[in-house]
Design goal:
Elements (H helix, E strand, L loop, with lengths): L5 H9 L5 H14 L6 E3 L2 H16 L11 E5 L26 H8 L3 E6 L33 H8 L5 E6 L5 H7 L2 E4 L19 E6 L2 H11 L17 H4 L8 E5 L9 H16 L3 E5 L7 H16 L27 H13 L2 H14 L8 H18 L5 E5 L15 H5 L6 H6 L3 E8 L5 E8 L4 H14 L12
Helix pairs in contact: 2-3, 10-12, 10-13
Amino acid sequence: MSQDTAVALLARMKAGETTSEEIVSALLDRAEKTRRLNVFVHLDGDHIRAQAREVDRRRKAGEPLGPLAGVPVAIKDVLCVDGEPTTCGSRMLRTFRPPYDATAISRLRAAGAILFGKTNMDEFAMGSSTENSAYGPTLNPWDEARVPGGSSGGSAAAVAASLAPLALGTDTGGSIRQPAAVCGIVGLKPTYGRVSRYGLIAFASSLDQIGPFAHDLADTALLLGVISGRDPNDSTSVETPVPDYAATLDTPPEKLRIGIVREFFGEGLDPEVAAAVQEAVKVYEKAGATIKEVSLPHSKYGVPAYYIVAPAECSSNLARYDGTTYGHRAEDWSPKFPGEDQIAPLVRMMMVSRSEGFGAEVKRRIMLGTFALSAGYADQYYNKALQVRRKIRGDFDAAFREVDVLLGPTSPTPAFRLGERTANPLAMYLSDIYTITANLAGIPGISIPCGLTKANLPIGLQLLAAPFAEDTLLRTARVFERATDWHTRRPGVQG
């Protein structure tokens, strides 16, 4: 039962073969036996069972139920859940319990979903390996010596290890798609504005998006439909109709025009990843797709532009964590070095609290962003990066006039070993080299499983579409899923 998809679990509950309480009890037992993976940072079994019993009661009474009634959904620890710990994987927020739900959480509750714990993540969503968490790293279920990707590594590992059929993550530069790729599952980043960001603790406000993890596209479409739509609490959410993704999933696009991105097949791409993606292209050719090579000439500037825009926004967003209102406050901020007694006590308290509360990667990005925004440098760095960002969006606009979907690898390599890149920030940043540009352009992207390496490590295929064309993205991905069985593969996790 633990390996069933959400759609399968819903069918079994409707048929009376099982109950939500039985499902969550099995998953909680599995989570206890696989604690070594360090997937969850908060898992309240009593509260989870209480949610499940209420859904079971309503189902037995014949009351109206939502589309996810009784289905467990794991939640990345960056989304506010009323009264539940929400720490962003950071010491800074280790005691924070928000007094409200994020809109995505409210919509899950309205759909009858069971909120199944909070998952581990890179601190404040800054990382590509889930090694930057104050709770320690999450392990990849396919190989426990390797990372599960990041920053949503806990959510991806939860689904991959069959600890939850569905999970929510966030994607600022690839933080849904890259973990999905290296964990062998589906991960979708919606168009910027498709899903409300209200209640999402911000890293980079113009880049962050909430999206689903699942084993297959039917589950992905179901969860995306629940969380999408305009929200008056988020001025960046867009008033545009939300299609019934699940209803149209099995209708192939009338024209299957796929663009192969030339720049996504250069130096640094693992040969086994390249081979798996080329095999995927053959699957689409066999399905009758028109394949065309396209160029995104400014994509080579994606990483440097991103690492100016994102840290600049991070510097601004994280300025609020100063120990005065909520979050970590240092217990001792007395002067310790010559001259410190000349600093006002309030300022010393803020300095020490931020120094203790934030980890090394967060501090690095705050300093980068503060420098990029500082007087005399904003025009050279931040404003120039915004101009490059517009060029990148222009490349995508031009490409989508010729094709409907762009195709390439999600990650340049399979999952790398724990500790392999922690001493080399640039190598870590390049893990997202194929995903970052979609965030800068605000377009939707999806990663689907497309193979395994000789070492039995998952490989992800990335598809990108025009703004608000998630239905096209899902239907195109479904063509591949129907023709292959990669989405049915599961790691042999003992537990």
